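Lab meeting minutes (informal)
Scribe: AK
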Amino acid sequence: MTTSVPAPASPAVAFSVAGVSKDFPGVRALEDVSLAGYRGEVLAICGANGAGKSTLARLISGQSAPSTGRIKISGYDKEVTSPADADDAGILFMHQEPVIVDEFTVEENLWLKQLSSAGKNRSWRVIPKRRREESLEALRTVGMHEVTLGQLGKTLTPGLRQMLALGRTQVTPHRILILDETTASTTEEHFKDVEALVERERAAGTCVIFVSHRMPEVFAMADRIAILRNGRLIEVLKAKETNREEVVTLMVGEAVRALEAVPTPSFAGIDPVLEVSGLCSGSARDINFTVHPGEIVGIYGLVGSGRSSIARSISGHQNRDSGTVKLYGQEVSPKSPGAALKNGIAYLAEDRRREGFVKDFSNGDNMTLATLGQYSKFGVLNPQQERRRVDELIERYKVKGDGKTLTRSLSGGNQQKVCLAKWIEAKPNLVVLDEPTKGIDIGSRLNIYQIVHELADEQKGVVVVSSEAEELLMICHRILVIRDGELVDEFQSTESNTDDLMRAALGGEL
């Protein structure tokens, strides 16, 4: 299967960025950036929220035009000023939020770019039968062995939606591949498929631009690392000649140390906030566990293990088949997120863009969405009181912009802090966080870790679902491991490591 168009017989430079700046209303996103990428290399672009990483990726791919400066794609004579130009130049841009049409089949989504230009003389959704084996091979290449070609896009989990989008690399000719936070939705086992895909691209002479917040992934794949801070290119380093601490220091301007594992306090004689007994929901079966006031409990497992089914059924986002959920000893059976919140349970969804906030609302509107009653009397809203509280929340959670800023315009980390503020403002007794740091840079991750610890200090019960073992070991007191829908093991964070969790999740194999 062809993954790249023939590379031009020119110098090894794949693209060059010369003196590029980009202005948005009131904001300079990039300032005089000059950078080159080479054929057969992986160039990582790293930086904190708002550093300009995605802006640079969008400029190279023709999604946006620079305010000043020039971008040159080797082997392409024109400037790339549109996605159509990018296609002609051999640039394939993979977004953080995968472009998947819910009502299209897996196969139709796989060939989406080709189908959109199929011509007027035939149905553009007709895929030749001769491409069936090519489609199946593309799915196998990205680890989607259990997915069928006729399955609808809307049935896929966020991780599988991302892997399906990555499958397009196998059926779309290209010379430059841009991965803009495309591993944010994938889990540790699927990252191996991404790593293998990137290695094949490198061997084929593709220039891979890898935008990521995940340092282990950057060092696993990158040849060079370009570091942006506040819109400026700070340094370009060879991955083999640097380390995580140096890169993080350059990203944020000061050294950031990983949090130490939190010691587990004694909960002897203390009634639990949450008791889950015999829970069956989705792929989860007969789940039993407790969470005490001030305790942070992690839930770890691979894709399809049932970890998110547990979180969603507790919080009213998914029906339970059987079992009981008790909050402070009282059984609760919320049928909706609103009912769960009335019972004192808040849930931060894995997919913040689809479930976390209203895209056309401002920060203020989103932050107070779950608590409007606090600022109303006899059904009449007090806007002054609401604005004062929004200002306090923006300052407390360190959210960029003000109450009138549209949440959709913010970086992923700031969007997540808006979502957290909304639910925590409702003063729940139990907070369930599903992949709370997905697609978020190191600085914002530390902000969110601090918020989680503050919740525990306030004697809230906290459940954190994550596909990152290292993250759970840093922020949780106790970690439950789910495999094939069953709770198979439990670990104390201070007495365990990532190998322990991954072996349990994989059934003893690593």
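Next up, CB showed the second protein from the same session:
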Amino acid sequence: MTAPLPVADDEAAYERLAARFRPVFARIAEGTVDRELHRGLAHEPVAWLKEAGFGAVRVPVELGGSGASVTQLFRLLVELGEADSNLPQILRAHFGLLEERLHDADGDARERWLKRIGAGAIIGNATTEIGGGALGAVGTTLTGDGPTWELTGTKHYSTGSLYADWIAVLARRGEEAQGFALVAADAPGVERIDDWDGFGQRLTGSGTTVLEGAEVEPADVFWFADRGPNYMIAFYQLFHLATLSGIGRAVVRDAAEYVRGRKRVFSHGSGPSPAEDPLVQQVVGRISGLAFAAEATTLAAVARLEAINALRAAGEVPQEVFDAAEIAASQAHITVADTVLRAANLLFETGGASTVQRTKALDRHWRNARTLAVHNPVIYKERVVGDHLVNQAAPAYSWIVGVRK
């Protein structure tokens, strides 16, 4: 029998859970600026999280995990994002695949993967292909008729794969069947290239993955046609919003710390020190309000996922409940992206030219937030929400890229 999905618990339960990981988050935060300045890849932080069992936090206890609820997971992601916003994004595909397996019906594949993750396995992503392919077209193929299949193709934006034990690769078998094939990251025929050149989220390992006949077990392919109704599109979007909310928290932390340590004042300032200047205090307060709003909005949308889990445990979930969760995630994205970007920009109003010193790396907050905010562009989220409200149009449950033929 499929284990029931975890449900939200009280604040004391969350604090007990978070207390296990906060020392690791603090250790990660200590090295964030140095990694940013010298582009030090996050292999050690990922290893620390793995050792602490963070990757298995949603896995049922009897299968090696912590049995956390989806709300608890997202609250932890916000805290991790405050420490270093690269880390939640590195783990986005990992927790996405885990979430899908949690919702699977009983079966060998479900139990095998939950146990693997419970034992510490980390999963990366290789989904996107660039070039002139048609919308929704997948060039990466699964071929062969033996006990193993061969996986061939080239992927870009392979977030997390540099740090992973397994990689979830979007592929097709024949012309129609599409799904995610799980391939060992160190398997022959798998090449991971660190060539991500974005100006933000620089350490996420979002480079190229080349697959040349890499072996895949047929039982480790999860077909889209086998999926039931789910909230995974909203889940993946909310992952970005949790990371953005963590950046908002980090902006508040760094703004207050910067002001406390600053002694120089402007002749036309309003206080004997920046910390006593009411205008500077106002800026910090405004930043704090923006960050609070971002996190509260994210968690309000996450609550829709929690409600689905509760309904699923009791029986079937009506389609309109899935629709409401998807719309809520889009509404949250519209709000959170703008709010965190404003907070990151306001940080520079707390001081003078010293705020832009490279050694402080305060610019990373805006760069990272800007990079995250362009995933699934806000303008299309706004249109989808507007169409739903005006015309009762169904939410868009597929966000794909390509050339419109």
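CB comment: The two ends are 46 Å apart (CA to CA).
No objections, moving on.
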